[in-house]
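thread: overnight batch results

M.L. [08:02]
morning all. the overnight job finished for the chain we discussed friday. pasting input first so we're all looking at the same thing
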Amino acid sequence: MLDGFLSHTEGKTLEFKRDFTSPKTLLKTLVAFANTAGGRLLLGISDDRKVIGINNVLDEEERLCSLIADSIEPRLMPNVEIITFDNKTILVVEVFVSSLRPHWIKAEGPQQGVYVRLGSSSRQADPLLIEELRRTAEGVAFDELPMPELSLDDLDLNAAKRLFQGISELDDHGLRTLKLMTVCQGRLVPTKGAILLFGKERNRHFSDAWVQCGRFIGTDKTNIFDHIEIHESLPQTVDSIILFIKKHAMRGADFSDIRRKDVWSIPLTLLREAVVNALVHADYSQRGAPIRISFFDDRIEIENPGILLPGMTVADMREGISKIRNHVIARVFREVNLIEQWGSGVRRIYSEARALGLPEPQFLEVGMRLRVVVYLAELVLVDQVTDQVTNQVTDQVTDQVTDQVTDQVTAQIGRLLDCLKDGPLSVREALELLQLKHRPTFMISYLQPALEAGLVEMTQPHSPNSPKQKYRLAARK
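M.L. [08:03]
and the structure it wrote out:
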């Protein structure tokens, strides 16, 4: 038994202690275990996993049990076991996630003495997290709570009905069935989930319920190339995030050398699952930062506020064990087919990565946030199409490098360059010549790649947002 513990490093559910010389640290660990996912504390083992043993183990066991009983509220009743290994005796204290949470250290009080487990450390919980621990113990979801100060008029029902068109009717009964509306103080009012999903002024009520996307040059956040803020309804946000990721499928921001350009295989199915997971399981009761999507040269990080729900570990998630934080949001996502089956998303993330031959994704609790790291695979390089700058990108792409991104982007740039041969064009004029109606498609798939490649330039580079702005072929260098 002990061999199994010693083969693991300290983490969310395991900690080693030499002795009782720091009782406060010991109590913090036990409280954090009870509030988070349970765990085992092994006494008589050094930090480097060497068995030191405990002298007078029966006396120490009694002292430990008294310390726990006198110092923690509500009362905690762990299992304490004596184990002998290599003629040395240790104590194993096993704590289960508690239905009486939040527990706290008596001497610090119920506001300052609550701790949760993050990685191998025990962190003090703030008031919002303490409320979350209490709600989850009572089986109450944050997004099911009523907002009595609001009414049906505070929901964008047109947006909700468009989303459910052909699926179900959003009449009074439908709204109550989905728990978008609930009875409070004798009247029908929106739930927090309804406002998060379809609120006309969502950001006024939940200031951090939005998404920040950034494309960084390299593998850290030193140099940012592009970023956007997404304040759409949560269901629409999924497609907007994926569009941003697809927009930056070409590696790096420097397109000046079109002859050798790295192209990434973007695992869109995997990323979509991770994005949906973040939106559904974010702790919207927390304040301080939005959901973040960070695109680096070697990986994409998807980060949402909120640690794993009590009783959950990353190992549990891999096994398909699921606990839903936001019942209303999850139900709506399920009804409109953004979620195929509850509890299957994380397993699909891992299986999709294996199928694509990608490194295994990582799930990390960083601060009071959950981060999913998806690693990317680099494909082959694109050869130069022609020798002349203005003619180098055409519909004829040599060697069909990738059927995912490269051919399409190259052909689109070629069409734009062909239109500009007769002189500068505004966006509206270019759309007409290209017979396009969707401005974002033109900006993302045609104009921006050509600008980044140095093939096209602005006629008024110092006033990029000028209504008189036009675009022309870049001067040869």
